[in-house]
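THUMP domain-containing protein
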Amino acid sequence: MAAPVQQPPQSSGGKRKGKAQYVQAKRARRCDGGGPRQLEPGLQGILITCNMNERKCVEEAYSLLNEYGDDMYGPEKFTDKDQQPSGSEGEDDDMEAALKKEVGDIKASTEMKLRRFQSVESGANNVVFIRTLGIEPEKLVHHILQDMYKTKKKKTRVILRMLPISGTCKAFLEDMKKYAETFLEPWFKAPNKGTFQIVYKSRNNSHMNREEVIKELAGIVGSLNSENKVDLTNPQYTVVVEIIKAVCCLSVVTDYMLFRKYNLQEVVKSAKDPSQLNPKQPAQAGNGKEAKLESGDKSNQNDPAEGKNNQQVVSENNEELGHTKPRSETKMVSELQTYFIYLGHFISLMERS
């Protein structure tokens, strides 16, 4: 009688992951075309906020961006992914040349698959990030808002704000200062100058301090040209700082107040809209509920320390969704604090010079 086959003993520490599982997890960080699948330093794109329905938000974003992208840059050209660029046939026998050709073919094939607009993981709830390729995000978003402002034609349902992101870096103060010194030059370095304000928002991040970031960035703007002045009412330029986890998104936009803080729902409303003339009407109840969803997302719940850095989040989001209430004392005090931070920093710069 044959002896029973014994099973090999298993370690008591549990099952170990195979090598294939690690490789699969590593590859999952990249999309099919070779581009990043999550927000990271070195990207350009468009940051979009919405109310809960992120999938619908992505669909609306693709539709809107492709419509205006084709208008500004022409239709997107697609290439068959199976088509490989031709190389030099005379060097096939040369091993080194053949290797270089293969690497070039792989790189070219990857570039073929990259799309003009590609959604990536933002790292925060109710926030969508669309990576852009071969376009200028600030010009495209300004073109969209300008057209909607003129025509007053509503084209989206779930998209709230649409902010262009011209550059990203690590969300640490030293990295941000080093990056901003070069990033801000096209707008503020002499002979260029203008009035400005800094708008700060942090999500899922507890190690950055709002006042400290504003102070440092304002100092950089002042050092580029002493004639750059702060204007919190109607600035020529608005420096947008959006921090999500360990990534800082930066951009410099124009007409920020005219286009209602780049809110697609508000920019289409006319000045005679009853919801703006009388914010105490019962019709505002629905918008108030939505404002609570936007400002009270899970990212703030997971990060208690974020409340200190986001003192103006609730008031800004209420204005985005139609709440044009008179200024509260808290908001006025917050604006005065921001103003004195700017003023104190510029006085210290003048004393040094």
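thats it. Residues 106 and 333 are 57 Å apart (CA to CA). The radius of gyration is 25 Å. bye
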